[in-house]
Amino acid sequence: MTIKSDLDRDGVVAVRQVLNAGNLESLAAALDENLAAPGPWANDYTPPGAGGRFFGDYVNWQRIAGYRRAALTGPLAALARELIGAPVRFFHEHALVKEAGTDEVTPWHHDEPYYCVDADENVSLWVSLDPVPAGFGLRFVRGSHSWGRRFVPRRFIDATPYAAAEEGFELVPDVDAIVAADDLINFDVAPGDVLAFHFRTLHDAPGSTGRRRAISFRYVGADARFAARPWLHSPPFDPIAPGEALDDERFPEVTATAT
Q1: pLDDT tens for residues 111-144?
Q2: How crowded is residue 137: how many other Cβ atoms within 10 Å of its Cβ?
Q3: Which residue from 251, 107, 131 is spatially nearest to 191, judged by alpha carbons?
Q4: Would you say residue 145 has pLDDT above 90?
Q5: CB 149 within 8 A of CB 172
Q6: Beta-bridge mates of residue 220
């Protein structure tokens, strides 16, 4: 078996020690830069008066060199090419930080309905800068990327759906009630490990007892096309024509191999 076959079967795979100490130091510095100067689409999901902090921000790779290097060159770019095949385009990065004592959970969801893109060939590469025991990290529903179902996105701030059920989309079900325990997958993650998962794989995450700094790098393949959504897509890129290929400088082609 290969990591690609595991990803194709389960919708998620843990790839161990993809990043070295230098890669991690560069990403930690990039994230510190991001936290010090959030971008225009940054969010704090923690309610006023609550403990901890749940911070999110995305699409800062053009202004933060550490994100750009990680996305377009080196081991993450090489892994994306291995899992998708060429050509590969970088869609965006997404930083998500849960400080110690953060109670807010990440609700069950899958990523593609948030986005302005449809693609069967895709992968998110989730990188944690901190050790994350399985019980406090992402949890996935095995094989859910192959269900042929799409779910209305949910707000991270309160887990409410963006809209009622729409044509082609349904509300997220009570996942814990409909799937067997052995259909749920989670992983102990060490710095340097990467969780690779499909945009349609259902996942959630609990609150955090310790600090959890994570960055997802998202990639798409040759079949990716712009898509319209019944809600404001995330990231909120400028309107584009549905059905067009992502032949756009905002989504650079990844051609470099690992360095």
Answers
A1: 999 999 999 999 999 999 999 999 889 999 999 9
A2: 21
A3: 131
A4: yes
A5: no
A6: 89, 122
Nearest to 172 by CA among 150, 187, 191, 201: 150
β-sheet bridge partners, residue 203: 109, 140
- Amino acid found at 26: S
Segment holding 9, helix H or strand E: helix 3-10
Residue 257 pLDDT level (bands cut at 50, 70, 90): low
Secondary structure (DSSP) of 34-48: HHHS--TT-EE-SPT
Mean pLDDT of all residues in 238-252? 88
Give the H or E element holding residue 195: strand 194-197
Inter-helix orientation angle 75-84/3-10, to 10°:
60
Full-model pTM: 0.95
Domain ranges of the chain: 3-226
Which fold is adopted by the domain 3-226?
Answer: Jelly Rolls (2.60.120)
What's the residue count for the chain?
259
Cis peptide before 252 (omega within 30 of 0): no
Structure tokens given for 82: 């291995």
Which residues 6+ apart lie within 8 Å of 208 measured at CB?
A: 52, 98, 99, 100, 101, 102, 136
CA distance 46 to 32: 19
Tokens 């609550």 locate to 50
What distance in Å separates the CA atoms of residue 186 and residue 190, rounded to the nearest whole number? Answer: 13
Cβ contact 29:67 at 8 Å: no
